[in-house]
């Protein structure tokens, strides 16, 4: 018997994940950003990460055009940024503090870590595309900062 989307979503909600904002730009230079929890490391040599992006989003098209993206790993307290980039706004960077890297890709300087990537490979993943990113530069902030976590449909904190 096939698994329903609701059953699948319910099962996956039991997996705690960190929250990232993936940023890029299109060929015209317009900036895009999208909240992504489908992120993981793939390889140390070469340094590869994986993100999954829904094919119907503007960010998906921009990723294909630019062939570059930045993964901004959010810290505890960044729920507002997560919600902002998860929303349907035409100008995602309006009112948000950001900077631009050497390739013209925007990034969030408040993120606890940043990985600047070029697209290594793109794979079909049903209603999403799977992008493997070759990590070309990293920036890490304060190691004492806790990550922003998501579990069972809500933001969570690490219990200490």
Number of strands: 12
Secondary-structure element order, as H and E?
Answer: HEEEEEHEHEEEEEE
Q: What fold name stands as the CATH topology?
A: Pnp Oxidase, Chain A
Derived from helix and strand composition plus strand pairing, the structural class reads alpha+beta
Return residue spans where pLDDT drops below 50 for at least 5 consecutive residues. Answer: none
Name the helicity range: 10-25%
Distance between the termini: 42 Å
Q: CATH top level?
A: Mainly Beta
How large a portion of the residues is in β-strands, by DSSP E? 35-45%
Strand order in the largest sheet: 3-2-6-9-10-5-4
Domain tally: 1
Name the descriptors:
160 residues; alpha+beta; Pnp Oxidase, Chain A
Condensed summary:
By secondary structure, the chain is α+β, with helices and mostly antiparallel strands.
Q: How is the topology of this model organized?
A:
Blueprint lengths: L4 H8 L4 E2 L1 E6 L5 E6 L2 E5 L4 E7 L3 H9 L1 E6 L5 H8 L12 E2 L5 E2 L5 E13 L2 E13 L8 E3 L2 E3 L4
Antiparallel strand pairs: 1-11, 2-3, 2-6, 4-5, 5-10, 6-9, 7-8, 9-10, 11-12
Explain the overall architecture.
There is one protein chain. The model has no long low-confidence stretch (mean pLDDT 94). The protein has helices spanning 5-12, 58-66, 79-86; strands at residues 17-18, 20-25, 31-36, 39-43, 48-54, 68-73, 99-100, 106-107, 113-125, 128-140, 149-151, 154-156. The protein has a seven-stranded antiparallel sheet with strand order 3-2-6-9-10-5-4. It has 160 residues and is α+β, with helices and mostly antiparallel strands. The chain has one domain (15-154): Electron Transport, Fmn-binding Protein, Chain A (Pnp Oxidase, Chain A). The longest helix has 9 residues, at 58-66.
């Amino acid at each position: 018997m096939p698994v329903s989307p609701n059953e699948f979503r319910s099962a996956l909600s039991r997996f705690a994940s960190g929250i990232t904002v993936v940023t890029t730009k299109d060929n015209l230079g317009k900036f895009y950003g999208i909240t992504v929890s489908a992120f993981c490391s793939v390889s140390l040599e070469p340094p590869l990460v994986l993100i999954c992006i829904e094919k119907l989003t503007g960010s998906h098209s921009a990723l294909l055009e630019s062939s570059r993206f930045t993964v901004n790993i959010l810290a505890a307290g960044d729920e507002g940024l997560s919600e902002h980039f998860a929303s349907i706004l035409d100008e995602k960077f309006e009112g948000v503090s950001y900077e631009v890297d050497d390739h013209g890709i925007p990034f969030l300087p408040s993120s606890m870590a940043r990985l600047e990537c070029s697209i290594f490979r793109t794979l079909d993943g049903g209603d999403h595309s799977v992008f493997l990113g070759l990590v070309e530069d990293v920036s890490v902030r304060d190691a004492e900062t806790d990550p922003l976590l998501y579990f069972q449909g809500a933001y969570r904190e690490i219990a200490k």
